[in-house]
């Protein structure tokens, strides 16, 4: 179309002058693609070290000390077990045949508790893991633009 000519199109009529001009209408569309590319690599190394350590543990041990105490006297009935401080006294009875039968306290068991403590050492193996990461094959930005694999949008 020339600059001094005008094209007018009215629905159902022809233009004033017989010149018909087509005006193209352009539309842009957007197409998106994704590309996967490798930008570098890493190497991971894991090592395990072991060390021996001494573990100290406090252990408690309890022993009983039994002392036999002869009594040798007659009783009319069995004495009860009793506590005297840290000593448990357990009566031991025996029947003795005499012209008449009597209950005789033969002996008592005096039982005390004795506690002791000691420290024991044990070798214990402990492990520690160490990780080292090394990046290899780092690509330049121009190389990163080369597609590795195309994926649809």
Average pLDDT for all residues:
80
Strand order of the largest sheet: 2-5-4-3
Q: Considering DSSP H and I runs of 4 or more, what fraction of the residues is helical?
A: under 10%
Structural class: mainly beta
Residue ranges: pLDDT <50 for 5 or more in a row?
1-11, 149-153
Biggest sheet, in brief? 4 strands, antiparallel
- Total helices: the number is 1
Portion in beta strands: over 45%
Query: What number of domains?
Result: 1
What is the 3D shape? Answer: rod-shaped
Radius of gyration: 54 Å
In N-to-C order, the SSE pattern is: EEEEEHE
The quaternary state of the protein chains shown equals: single chain
Number of extended strands = 6
**C-alpha end-to-end distance:** 41 Å
Characterization of this structure:
With 153 residues, the chain is an all-beta fold. The protein has one domain (34-151). It contains one helix and six strands. The strands form two sheets. Strands 2-5-4-3 form a four-stranded antiparallel beta sheet, with no helix packed on it. A two-stranded antiparallel ribbon has the order 1-6. Strand 4 (87-97) and strand 5 form a beta hairpin. The protein is rod-shaped.
